[in-house]
Amino acid sequence: MKVFKFGGASVKSADAVRNIVDILRKFEHTKIIIVVSAMGKMTNLLEKAVEAHRNGSPYDSVVAEFRHYHSEIIHELGGLSQDVQSRIDGFMEELDQLLSLPVASDYGMDYDRIVSIGELVSTSIIEGFLKSSGFRSEWLDVRNVIVTDQKHQNADVNWTRSSANADIMHHHLNEGDTDMLVTQGFIGRSALGNTTTLGREGSDFSAAILAYLCDAEDVTIWKDVPGMLNADPKWFNNTIKLEEVSYRETIELSYYGASVIHPKTIKPLQNKNIPLYVKSFLHPEDPGTSIRDGATCVPEVPSYIFKADQVLISISPKDFSFIVEQSLSEIFQAISDCGMKINLMQNSALSFSIVVDNQPARRQQLMELLSGSFSVRYNEGLKLLTIRHYDKKIADSLTQGNEILVEQRSRHTWRIAMRELSKSE
Ligand code: ASP
Ligand code: MG
To test ligand 1's pocket by mutation, which of 153, 184, 200 has the most ligand atoms within 8 angstroms of CB? Predict the structure, then answer.
């Protein structure tokens, strides 16, 4: 059994849906669990509906846009069977109802219930279209399989309880006459019965969870890029496609900010030694990238990860005392309390520095929390460059014309927080 994951961009229009059906034709009698995200930018749109609902502002136009977007696609696909269409109508009604209810005390609970409708609708459309195109497909509500805790918007999987549900999928695929089981990425359900979500862009992780639960032979993530590249083409020219990358290297790259797959995806796959392929839905014949146990990286080239809009925060004890374990523990507690994520850290005798994404509200909160014992200063407008398997010459050329504020080098990784020098400097 295989697991395929199709993200929002691969199902953003009727043509895109037809394209993925063409891909699936080549696998017509293979048993596949197909994990699909919300179509196009529908998650962002539903987030707007959540905001409007919370603020008591009008959301009708957002809901109208959501309905219109999907009904256009359904229309262009030539319509769906009555039962699929009524399931979709049911989700649309649920959306209206959720938005007309008073706000829940827990923001995340409202968010998860509302935003999950994107995936419930997209998978219904895809499955309905597959069936009417002659596939032996079935729709599955993934919330009956993936059990999570109650941490809304970023729920953790309850592996024991979810494993007990793996039979649901086996039953559909092995005992029935179904080849393709279409289900949602990103969403789950808590043991208390509430819909939860796994964090933005979490559908890759869903595919890995289901693969783990079913002992799948492999997972393929279909993307609009040819595979994993050694740099983001948004920032770098002449990127190179990586043919093979180890699980470990993939985790390192995504930890430093390579965004091609969700960072949580690898662990379940590595634990069961399930290979992951990243392939282009535009050129499905191309080999893409394979991620498995093995060579760190083929070809052996440096990888570059670039994060813009970074801030260097320097924290020093007010009384000129040393940075020691106790002050570090106080600082870490404050960082964690404001929900900040550290991209790089460094200490000296009298100060502790971190590089983080530019989030002014969180930074303000941190400064307040630490203001008793520490003085906190910051520098904005930095770039953070990480080079895996670095090459000194290229690193020099990439840092040219920049002032380097923090630099760290280990055997395989070189990290530089820098700021462009203005022309006059
Ligand atoms: N639809 C969700 C999002 O846009 C999940 C995903 O696409 O992976 O964040
Ligand atoms: Mg998406």
Answer: 200
Tell me, in angstroms, the distance from the centre of ligand 1 to residue 186's CA. Answer: 6
Q: Is the dihedral of CA 321, 325, 328, 330 positive or negative?
A: negative
| Tokens linked to 84 | 């699929």
Per-residue confidence band for 212, with pLDDT thresholds at 50, 70 and 90: very high
Q: How far apart are CA 65 and CA 69, in angstroms?
A: 6
- As a whole number of angstroms, the distance between CA 319 and CA 325 comes to 16
* Each residue's pLDDT tens digit, 4-17: 999 999 999 999 99
For the full predicted model, state whether its pTM sits above 0.85: yes
pLDDT digits (tens, 9 = 90+) for 93-115: 999 999 999 998 899 999 999 99
All domains of the chain in start order, with CATH:
2-216 (3.40.1160.10), 303-420 (3.30.2130.10)
- The one-letter amino acid code at 327 reads S
Amino acid identity of residue 191, one-letter, is: A
Please tell me the distance between residue 190's alpha carbon and the centre of ligand 2 in angstroms. 22
Cα(265) to ligand 2 centroid in Å equals 15
Side chain identity, residue 280: S
